[in-house]
């Protein structure tokens, strides 16, 4: 972490009471949202696991074999996608929880270096969310085109 000479000599933090109050409130809400995110990640992961297990069920012997591959491969593929999405969703939750922890720590210790770490975690959260958003927009534009060309083949 980069710090200047003044911060190395004096790492005490000087902020207004209103700024401190706002940081405390932000720390509480980011922790709350991080916990909700962890719960959501768990649900998405379990749904993915359930879909994979549902795809492993034995087909009825009377089922048409032409529909067999699609019927039992689709839940597995969707389950894998859900599990990958849960991993992607895990990182923002971790960044938010770390921000909350470091913000509370910096306020209790009045240490500006800890505040820098907290802000770095928040920056990481927004950077990650920006990348995921751009990737989602690109996928939303590409997938329909691939689907259209796939139906033509």
Please supply descriptive tags for the structure shown above.
153 residues; mainly alpha; 4 helices
Notes on the protein architecture:
α2 (about 15-55) runs antiparallel to α3 (about 65-110) and α3 (about 65-110) runs antiparallel to α4 (about 110-150). The protein is elongated, with a radius of gyration of 23 Å. It has helices at about 5-10, 15-55, 65-110, 110-150. The model has no long low-confidence stretch (mean pLDDT about 85). It contains four helices and no strands. The protein is mainly alpha-helical. The N and C termini lie far apart (about 55 Å).
Present the secondary structure layout.
Layout: H1 5-9, H2 17-55, H3 65-109, H4 112-152
Quick gist of this model?
This protein is mostly helical and about 150 residues long.
Largest sheet properties: none
Q: How many strand units?
A: 0
Output the number of helix runs.
4
- What is the alpha-carbon Rg in Å? 23 Å
> Helix coverage percent of residues?
over 70%
Low-confidence spans: none
The rough form would be described as elongated
Q: Please provide the ordered H/E string of secondary-structure elements.
A: HHHH
State the secondary-structure class.
mainly alpha
Residue share in β-strands:
under 5%
Terminal residue distance: 54 Å
Overall pLDDT: 86
